[in-house]
UniProtKB/TrEMBL annotation:
<protein>
    <recommendedName>
        <fullName>Nuclease SbcCD subunit D</fullName>
    </recommendedName>
</protein>
<dbReference type="Pfam" id="PF00149">
    <property type="entry name" value="Metallophos"/>
</dbReference>
<feature type="domain" description="Calcineurin-like phosphoesterase">
    <location>
        <begin position="1"/>
        <end position="213"/>
    </location>
</feature>
<dbReference type="Pfam" id="PF12320">
    <property type="entry name" value="SbcD_C"/>
</dbReference>
<dbReference type="InterPro" id="IPR004593">
    <property type="entry name" value="SbcD"/>
</dbReference>
<keyword id="KW-0233">DNA recombination</keyword>
<dbReference type="InterPro" id="IPR026843">
    <property type="entry name" value="SbcD_C"/>
</dbReference>
<dbReference type="GO" id="GO:0008408">
    <property type="term" value="F:3'-5' exonuclease activity"/>
</dbReference>
<dbReference type="InterPro" id="IPR050535">
    <property type="entry name" value="DNA_Repair-Maintenance_Comp"/>
</dbReference>
<feature type="domain" description="Nuclease SbcCD subunit D C-terminal">
    <location>
        <begin position="263"/>
        <end position="353"/>
    </location>
</feature>
<comment type="subunit">
    <text>Heterodimer of SbcC and SbcD.</text>
</comment>
<keyword id="KW-0235">DNA replication</keyword>
<keyword id="KW-0378">Hydrolase</keyword>
<keyword id="KW-0269">Exonuclease</keyword>
<dbReference type="InterPro" id="IPR029052">
    <property type="entry name" value="Metallo-depent_PP-like"/>
</dbReference>
<dbReference type="InterPro" id="IPR041796">
    <property type="entry name" value="Mre11_N"/>
</dbReference>
<comment type="function">
    <text>SbcCD cleaves DNA hairpin structures. These structures can inhibit DNA replication and are intermediates in certain DNA recombination reactions. The complex acts as a 3'-&gt;5' double strand exonuclease that can open hairpins. It also has a 5' single-strand endonuclease activity.</text>
</comment>
Amino acid sequence: MKLLHTADWHIGRRLHGFDLTDEQQNAFDQIEQIAQAEQVDGLIIAGDVYDRRLPSEASVAMVNQMLQQLNLTDQIPLYAISGNHDSATRLATGTPWFKATHLYLHTDLSQAFTPIELTDTQLFLCPYFEPFAAQQYFNDESIQHLDQAFARVVTEMKTHFDPAKKHLLVAHFFVAGSSTTDSETNLTVGGLAAVPTDLLADFDYVALGHLHGKDALHLPNARYSGSPVKFSLSEANQHKGVWIVDTDETPVKVTFKPITPIHDVRQITSSFDDLIASADDDSINHEDYVGITLTDRQPIPNVMARLRAVFPRIVTLGRAAGFESQVRYHGETSQQIQQKSPMALLGDFYEQVAKENLTSQQEKWARAALKQANEGGDQA
């Protein structure tokens, strides 16, 4: 059988305030095209369909449209699980009749132990869970950490193995030894927040979700698909796409299929003048989402507005290391400003805005407010 492995759609996600709906729709369209071109027998979604537990109405409508397009229109079987960003309860709505169209959506740990029987493969769908869920399921209070919980889960799964078939696991966790970026939410519940790699050894393939880079883990039988869209500057150098998993091969064969974004995410380090001059350079995609690091020492008036005239999708703007302390604001370096007291900073700010000094009464109010804030912080 041939399956497509994707994960971490995070529908509803924004990039520093920028709406990513068009990017996510474009990625979905390419996933659909890859599935059709490869004539896959099914499509795996390894968790985090939504970006938050309470998705907006627009996000729900978008996910519904995507699942209907794949499952009802294209008639592709879907094998999906909930991730740590999803609301298992909301995502599970409608599941009693999903199986009639071969849409399998597992959101509860108890569902993980009944494999989906395919022609040559058993598919175990294990949604994201916390150790307490395993403690309840197995009625064992000794289960306190994720590694203990996952060991019990795998042991139970193996009792259902059909030796004549291959065994695939779909899961949404951080696996020990994986590399992360700042766009991912690390799992910290249960004390030990990583699944040991040896617990995955008995599966022919493990389709993972949670980490956004396809190269986050290097195991012969386990892969993160990564997210189909770049969600932060830390993902700028990642190659997005999906895995095609062929169970007819032994060992299982996996092939990466790339996804091309409408607008890429890039980090640029340059001088202000060079960035402005690049407006006439047709080799540069000025519509990309960019994080800009300036190498200028001098202050630049209205810098963000002027740069946005060339790069309208600036997500961050900063100064290169060694340059930031030389930047002057109203005649002072940032280092000098950092050494000022809160009252002095407030006085400077008021003077810049109101064009006059604080009155003695205003200073008394400000000192009283600062004292109250400090006392509150000491009590917290």
